[in-house]
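We read letters as residues; the fold follows as tokens. Both lines appear below.
***
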Amino acid sequence: MKYLIDNIRMNTIYSLVLLFSMACSNNNVGIHQLYGTYGYNKENYIDTIQLLKDSSYIHTHQTTKGTIYRNEGTWKFDSKLREVVFDDFIFYNEQGGDVPGFWIPKVKNIENEIRLIYASEENLYYRKLK
């Protein structure tokens, strides 16, 4: 019985420490910090997103052959879920783009660098440039 009580106490302490560290993390991002230009972090890949104050965005992709694709749409920020919701977003490749749709990346503040996460398991993201 003593072992069970000690185990419950340790789990409670661990949970409180974890909650406190999450509450104190610098991952909180306000909407005013999101405005600006973001660049994709993959080498030799020219892909930018501009988040404008009027809730519109401009997405530009340049292929290795120099072809430039561009689309525009609207965005909104969900501060509770720390996500940006892009409407009419198009992902591009060398051949062009797919059909417009919703893209909902997580927003992270890592070492004072704001990132829109594309694929966390592959460490791919758009980082704020300015």
